Amino acid sequence: MSGTAARFGRAAFGRRGADPLPPAAMAAPAAAPPDPAPAAPLTGPAAAAAGLRAACLARLDPAAFADSTPERLQADVERLVAEIADENRIQLNGREQRLLAIELVDDMVGLGPLEPLLDDESITDIMVNGPDRVFVERGGKLVLSAARFRDTSHVNNVAQRIASAVGRRVDESSPMVDARLADGSRVNIIFPPLALNGACISIRKFSRRRITFDTLVAKGSVTAQMARILKIGAAARLNVIISGGTGAGKTTLMNAMSQMIDPGERIITVEDAAELQLQQPHVVRLETRPPNLEGRGEVTQRDLVRNALRMRPDRLIVGEVRGAEAFDMLQAMNTGHDGSMSTIHANTTRDAVMRIENMVQMGQANLPLRAIRTQIVSAVDLILQLERMRDGSRRVTQVTEVIGLEGDVVVMNDIFQFEYDGENPDGSLRGHYKVSRARPGFAARLQYFNLDRAWAAALDEVPAP
Q1: Where on the tree of life does the source sit, at the highest rank (predicted)?
Q2: How far apart are CA 373 and CA 353, in angstroms?
Q3: Is residue 27 pLDDT above 60, yes or no?
Q4: Position 432 pLDDT exceeds 80
Q5: What is d(CA 123, CA 226) in angstroms, rounded to the nearest whole number?
Q6: N or C: which end of the chain has fewer CB within 10 A?
Q7: Measuring CA to CA, how many Å separate 63 from each of 14, 15, 44, 106?
Q8: Nearest 10 degrees: CA dihedral of 70, 74, 80, 85?
Q9: What pLDDT was estimated at residue 397?
């Protein structure tokens, strides 16, 4: 119940309970899509629990629980389950009745069978591929969980509940949506007819504990020396692009770096689905808006970036650059908004530069390539590359300085470059970092913030390969 209350809050009870699932759908599961391992017919205690669930749903009055606290709602439903079990002589012990009551409450005000997975701190991703195919990621590895939905209607109801909680909709006419949970977890939903086997829900969870560089060092994502370098870069207001694939840890690293921002600075974030968890007191969060049913009212990231530049930001943080807003982001970095950060999908730091070039051309087709590259080298100081390794770990594999242009070529220098050495007996990967101690092109910036000696000292701590 604590997880449900944290995600939806007390005010959500009446709104969630006012539109319960039809009892018929609860009592008699519809035929599931073809599956390699079809579920066996319910017998024994499972059949008794299904019958008791249907009887409880027929007796539940959502209006009566509209103003209930989580604790009171749980207690009331437990009493109702026990009462109906006694009336119908359904043989379920106290533990089974309590678990059924929790399941009913989660369906009324939460996300049904996903609630235990959301409360499990060891799970980082939840992927619903159908009523009987719920996968989770633990320790970087995907496994099939024991969570099950009753039928496809149950999956659809949970998906629509997530979307409506952030003012969005998902159905056959609008079959794709990005949303978020109240705790910041990112959600993507895709409905039929685009999803051939039924609605699919993908949830990227975020740790409830504050992620710091010490946490990343403990997990092996960065070394202590690299963490010190990145802290100095954030404190010196270097413009940083964080690159990597899906699930590589880009947002987590950005949250960690943001902790070095001075509390007196005004930060404006622009995101498709708000997921950054900044700790500073002066943060303005902006989020895009999809078009309405008539196809009007859409607000894109580019619109928000342009508007953010009029809001007197000290730093501008764009959650993810994936289109023409890349040009406006470069403009912001080049016009006094030092210390800005953004993420991008790319395989290497060199590829990240090419991706930025391509995205700028999406909105400025007539801009010469050399002019675009000049903007990039003038705006971007550091590019960080993250990778999810085959052993499930997430690691910063490159820290690259953007130096300048030589002819039409962007000159870059890898300050840190991870080199693979082999595999340990437990299956984990081992390697070392090749380190460049060359004087950086932003040395004057480091000196301005009195951090030049700290930068040099941090690099000297790393043993030469």
Answers
A1: Bacteria
A2: 8
A3: no
A4: yes
A5: 27
A6: C
A7: 7, 10, 33, 17
A8: 160
A9: 95
pLDDT in tens, 185-208: 889 999 999 998 889 999 988 777
User: Rounded to 5 degrees, what angle do the CA atoms 271, 13, 164 make?
Assistant: 35
Length of the chain: 465
Written as one letter, the residue type at 293 is: L
Residue 232 vs residue 29, higher pLDDT: 232
Share of the chain above pLDDT 70, in %: 82
Q: Indicate whether 194 and 221 sit together in one domain.
A: no
Confidence (pLDDT) at 277: 79
Torsion angle, alpha carbons of 240, 242, 243, 247, to 10: -170
Other C-beta atoms lying within 10 Å of the C-beta of residue 238: 23
Section 378-391 average pLDDT:
93
Both 309 and 448 in one domain: the answer is yes
Residue 363 in contact with residue 383, Cβ under 8 Å? no
Q: Are residues 442 and 372 in the same domain?
A: yes
Domain interval for residue 101:
1-34+42-110
Same structural domain, 54 and 16: yes
Buried b / exposed e across 186-224, counting CB within 10 Å, b at 16+?
bbebebeeebeebbbbbbbbbeeeebebeebbeeebbbe
